[in-house]
Amino acid sequence: QVQLVESGGGLVQPGGSLRLSCAASGFSLRNHAIGWFRQAPGKEREYLSYLMSSDEIVHYADSVKGRFTISRDNDKNTAYLAMSNLNVEDSAVYYCTAANKVYAGRYYQTRWEWYDYWGQGTQVTVSS
Predict the structure, then answer these.
(1) Model confidence over 14-68: pLDDT tens digits?
(2) From 3, 72, 73, 77, which residue has the greatest number of CB atoms within 10 Å?
């Protein structure tokens, strides 16, 4: 059974930090691209970051550049999104995704539908 399970969300003060985890089962993240997305109430799903399986290609949305860091631990079959300098606009449900695909360019890899698997998300709430 292919599954991605996000964890690590919760309530955090403005300016604080959180590290989200994405545990994969039923497949190996080692040969998968990883993507992170989020969706806040009343807003469209927003792309955040991707990391190719080679770890040589990485990209961040402008809204999170310099604040978020995507990474993976293949031995633990887990992906991560480290977040810092959080503000109220970062409050959302955060989703991880994975794709067993070769590099297809930024146009495709910033789109939800390009990915093969996704989790149910973890809630991040930044208080004001």
Answers:
(1) 999 999 999 999 999 999 999 999 999 999 999 999 999 987 899 999 999 999 9
(2) 72
